[in-house]
TrEMBL record:
Residues 10-75 form the Cyclic nucleotide-binding domain. This is Crp/Fnr family transcriptional regulator. The lineage of its organism: Bacteria, Pseudomonadati, Bacteroidota, Bacteroidia, Bacteroidales. GO terms for molecular function: DNA-binding transcription factor activity. GO terms for cellular component: cytosol.
Length: 182
């Protein structure tokens, strides 16, 4: 089984057979670095399952992107018109894509698809709440180690400014943590 599929099934507690059936109905898309797939100005709702690359959800504060969460291989992201955050590719990405209309059609014709989509959405909302709690209770170092466990090569693939904003640290602190975690 491919790594992204294995992670998706494990993380989201979904059945591999159902996910493969869903992927067969989705379109493979390729995103360029810097491409936005969700924001307040984009009305379309859609679902992406990331095959490769790194994206981030972010808000813009004083003209700078402030990372809320990183998304990588095996993550699913439900995009919808939101004035709270946007989703942008930080590297070139490959992902499976399906529009809201196609999701609704699938869910109307199959209870197993409806349940799968519900599970993906529930997990995304659960993860958002967990992230909010972790910001308050985990130290910068604990968040850093958790991020490295999730995406081991992130320091080599993503500009440090996104990582430092996510951690709430400065570049010097990040360098110290990187040196002491080896």
């Amino acid at each position: 089984m491919e790594a992204y599929l294995k992670k998706l099934c494990f993380e989201y507690q979904v059945d591999e057979k159902e996910v493969k059936e869903l992927l067969a109905r989705m379109e493979m898309v390729y995103l360029d670095k810097g491409e936005t797939i969700a924001s307040a100005t984009m009305p379309e709702q859609s679902l992406y399952i990331i095959v490769s690359g790194i994206l981030h959800t972010y808000t813009t504060h004083e003209g700078e992107d402030r990372t809320i969460r990183f998304l990588s291989e095996g993550d699913a992201v439900l995009c919808y018109n939101s004035n709270q955050y946007a989703v942008k590719a930080l590297t070139k990405c490959a992902a499976y894509y399906i529009s809201e209309e196609e999701i609704e059609e699938l869910c109307a014709t199959s209870i197993s698809f409806a349940n799968l989509v519900r599970q993906l959405m529930e997990y995304q909302f659960y993860f958002k709440e967990e992230e909010n709690m972790n910001v308050r209770k985990l130290t910068v170092r604990e968040r850093y180690l958790s991020l490295l466990a999730e995406i081991p090569d992130i320091l080599y693939r993503v500009p440090l400014k996104y990582i430092t904003h996510y951690l709430g640290a400065d570049v010097t602190s990040l360098g110290y943590m990187a040196g002491s975690s080896k």
